[in-house]
Specification:
The protein has 17 helices and ten strands. The protein has 368 residues and is an alpha/beta fold. It folds into two domains: 2-245, TIM Barrel (Alpha-Beta Barrel), CATH 3.20.20.70; 254-336, Non-ribosomal Peptide Synthetase Peptidyl Carrier Protein, Chain A. It starts with a strand and ends in an 11-residue tail after the last helix. The relative contact order is 0.12. Bound molecules: flavin mononucleotide.
């Protein structure tokens, strides 16, 4: 897969989830495998130019976190250009423009999903960036503002002419938020509209089979996953293998899950320091335990986690308590086994069931 001059080893991408897709999470997923280009949370271009410390924290990275795209939002072409030029100097591999964010403070200034409605202005902004940069510029959009304004195909075509190297399309409208189902037909219209750039489909992909389904039904060149990755950091490795061989690898063992959870915490502590890292891990750990079988003993204590050492105590206590749910071979007795996420074959599923199947992490969810 090529994004302009950037060659990528995987056609699977990590979607930005503000507050979650930080450096420790990206590294955790990268170490498991299957992912190449990952994207930061969205960052305000002007804040980057001003070297605002919060904006700088959002783009924190290291050599293992490569290739990396930074997602920018803003509506002033010169600001977007200058922020991107600085990122290029810092070694960032690609810049993604947020055109899907429906948050009022982003849309009010003409950024995020407002960009889907003003194509001339958006094209000018993109051209200003593309002319100044050597690294690829990509755009992430929804299908349109609402069902009466499904502008994504036209926008993608206009952006391709303006020089974007790829587009990411979340198959919902701004008005939909996270409700309803992803419209694969809408993504297919974008694929048909562009001449040669890759179109990356996004939305509700939580299993290797649903990635395959999205590709087969839309013709998209790659798939980007957000919540599915948070729910299951193995998803990129498993999906890559499945797309290449048609075979589904076995689910990670309990021991592997423990090992990755520990690693994730270690990276949190390394990047954010022990106190902040542990505090931030309070909302992360329960995502791992969804696959542990009964885990209330663990969940109750981990939401008050303060130190790395305490984590091991909590874990030891949990492992002792968990024995009651195991059979003589050390496996969970069948009635305690967690439910796996079922392939979400989008349009075939009632909306409510689909939403239940894919938990939405706490955050500015209704605005995303
Ligand atoms: C908590 C949360 C934060 C998000 N933050 C961003 C963001 O910073 N930039 C962006 O383009 N999309 C953001 N999104 C949208 C996701 O990137 C993605 O398009 C959406 O979740 C659908 O994909 P999924 O079903 O694989 O999660 C966010 C979504 C959620 C739930």
């Amino acid at each position: 897969m090529q994004f302009g001059s950037l060659s990528l080893k995987s056609n699977l991408f990590l979607s930005p989830l503000a507050g979650y897709t930080n450096l420790p999470f990206r590294l955790t997923v990268r170490e498991i495998g299957g992912l190449d280009l990952a994207t930061t949370d969205l960052v305000n271009a002007r804040s980057l130019i001003e070297r605002n410390h919060k904006a700088l924290a959002l783009i924190e990275t290291n050599v293992a976190d490569s290739p990396l795209a930074v997602q920018l939002f803003g509506a002033v072409p010169e600001e977007m250009r200058d922020a991107a030029l600085w990122l290029q100097e810092q070694g960032v591999n690609s810049v993604d423009i947020n055109m899907g964010c429906p948050v009022r403070k982003v849309v009010r200034v003409g950024g995020g999903s407002a960009m889907m409605t003003e194509m001339g202005r958006t094209a000018k902004l993109v051209r200003t960036m593309v002319d100044a940069l050597n690294i690829p510029v990509t755009a992430k959009m929804r299908l349109g503002w609402d069902d009466n304004n499904l502008t994504a195909p036209e926008l993608a075509r206009v952006l391709e002419d303006a020089g974007v190297a790829a587009v990411f399309v979340h198959g919902r409208t701004r008005e939909q938020g996270f409700s309803g189902v992803v419209k694969l037909d809408g993504i297919a219209r974008v694929v048909e509209a562009v001449k040669s750039i890759p179109v990356i489909g996004n939305g509700d992909v939580t299993t290797p089979e649903s990635a395959r389904h999205m590709i087969d039904h839309t013709g998209c060149h790659g798939v980007s996953m957000g919540r599915g990755a948070f729910y299951n950091p193995w998803i990129f490795k498993h999906t890559k293998l499945y797309l290449e061989t048609g075979k589904l690898p076995p689910e990670p063992t309990f021991q592997e899950r423990l090992q990755v959870m520990r690693r994730h915490l270690d990276l949190m502590v390394e990047v954010f320091g022990e106190s902040k890292g542990c505090m931030m891990f309070r909302k992360v750990a329960p995502w791992y335990t969804k696959q542990f079988g009964p885990a209330n003993k663990f969940n109750k204590r981990v939401v008050m986690l303060k130190t790395r050492e305490e984590f091991e105590e909590i874990l030891d206590e949990f492992l002792e308590w968990r024995v009651q749910f195991l059979d003589e071979t050390g496996e969970l007795k069948p009635r305690y086994q967690p439910h796996n996420l079922q392939p979400s074959f989008m349009e075939d599923q009632p909306a409510v069931a689909n939403r239940e199947r894919i938990p939405v992490p706490k955050g500015p969810v209704e605005v995303w």
